[in-house]
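Risk register update: the risk of archive-format incompatibility is retired. Evidence:
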Amino acid sequence: MIAKPCVDVDYEVCSHGDCNALDPRNPQHGQLLCDRTGCDYNPYRLGNTTFYGKGKTVNTDKKITVVTRFEEDEVTQFFIQDGKRIEAPKPNHPGFPDESGISAGHCAALPPNFGDPEHFGQVGGYARHNEALRRPMVLALSISKDHWANNLWLDSVYPPQRDGPGAERGPCPANQGGPGLPWVEVDDSRVAWSNIRFGPIGTTV
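Archived output:
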């Protein structure tokens, strides 16, 4: 999970350099408009390396039900697989709150413990995140074809040259995230979303 709030919570479209206010080519350079990095909750990155993946606690070789709960003070997830409810694990890393999700405390712990940029707080933090969630939204599902960072931020070491706490976000090799590789090496890959539901907490499963 990841939250990426902006100073302006209204709907808007950015293009080219406008998407990154820290880009020196941007006429608004120096004015941080959005948290491009985001506040993420990644069990692998937080020390729970056996939680999600092939043959792991949440086995990605099988069908999974994902339930995400957006509450006032946190965003959490649990999973259902083979009829069993599986809670997301709490961080297995010092310096983080004893809670398994995105919260104000979790987001505040990322910069000092993992060296992440402090953009989340600079654009308004969890309060801005909540303000955006109170507005009408559209659910969008996609398969990311990431030419910018090859999806390394999701399940590999990122940035590629980094080491130390928080660098490992997943087990994937750094040279295997290129967007063209699936078409060549696993051209029969597929994913299906079904039975998508939304509603008050506790009503969808």
